[in-house]
Amino acid sequence: MRHVLSALAISFVLVAAPSPAQAVPTMAARIDQAATFYQNRDGFMGMVAVARDHQIIFQRGYGYANLESQISFTPDTRFRIGSLTKQFTAAGILLLQQDGKLKTHDHISRFYPNSPAAWRKITLRNLLTHTSGIPDVDFGLVANNSLHTPEDLMKGIPEKPLEFKPGTKAEYANINFMFLGRVIEQASGEPYCRFLQERIFGPLQLTETGCDTNSNQAPQRAVGYRPSEHGPVAVEDYELSTLTGAGNLYSSVGDLIRWTEALHGGKVLSSAALTEMTTPFLDFYGYGLQIDTEDGTLDISHNGTVDGFFSCLDYIPQTKTTVVVLSNLVGERNQTTPGTLALDTELVHLAISDDAILPSEGREANVPEKILRAYSGRYRSTDPVHPVFLVVTYADGHLYIKNEGAKTEPARMFAETPLKFYLTIQEVELTFDPRVAGSLQFVDFSGISGAVFMRVAESGMQVPDHGPSKGAAPARSRP
Predict the structure, then answer these.
(1) Is the distance from CB of 433 to CB of 441 less than 8 angstroms?
(2) What is the pTM of this model?
């Protein structure tokens, strides 16, 4: 949480809000306006595509797939998609279950007979839902040591103790899906990539999707970038086969729309298997998919990151809308997304409701003064190690927020709904949870992180803490 709170202290400065945007006649125009806003303000670069009920509403690129050669994006531009790989792996496991070659309640020891005794109760379902307790691998080794197989990266993991009893807690860990990639190979008798090609990519005609084996020569492949003092610089490419099952695929906006519509349209899995995949277990996670709600509407999604790339894929069943945002520019240490996650969040809100209030348009909802005044107060983070206090104040019909003790002016909070607010000066969203009195949820999209704050008395005595809301959604989904 220190990263989130540090961002607060640095970023809460008073600046002029954008002028209210003129009314736009179409959803496509609003999408373009939002993407252009984050391109101009935060440096967003990538492809954006939105489809509804099998019709492409919008698709456009911003910036370049290759800055050095000034190559523009197309709907077929290939991006490394990182953890979006996980939903393909999960579908592969369920296809094998339909074939009768495994069951999701099988124990991992069936496929890893030499696994430690502590792993004996771990099932494939635990791997699919990140509830195994197996400690994650160090992904810094991928780029630094030229490792070529998942086994290279997982060396030494079995000797470590489990982080928690299987099935009792959810802890996002890529190693779970690396194991599942090997399970697919053992159960199918085929290499992971060939199995997906035969069972998913080929039948669905996903011609721009496959396993990334450092295919740098493909003319339609985007180059990944990171920021520097002299502008974006290309990241060093490295082999992704080490991440098989967890993050080794590439794809395009066009293919991801086709995949999503096919998956949720019942063209990939049986109805029972799809229900199993999209039913959340712990921490709002299904099988390779985050099962959240946005504004009370179901949002089935996932994010993905790999050096130089950040991807977002959302499906809104209520409106049958798919939102894809693929970026080939990340922030320092891959921990920030220049506009990508904030843009995706806006497009999801727009996919849910044509009347959605978008921060990029500088608009806000009309919230009664009584409600706004009720939010005023002092809030303490629930982080027991590095607690930080925020102060919310009401003045002139608006709410303002700042870090307690900060010398900067408080930042104006703009209302999206009576419960949800945003800051125009950075990628931040704040939500007051009515189910937990005095609860303020903070999501910093620029750092892909979040925190929960509880109201405390002015004397420093804390209001009775009921804990974070069990219904509170995490900071979108994890890469």
Answers:
(1) yes
(2) 0.84
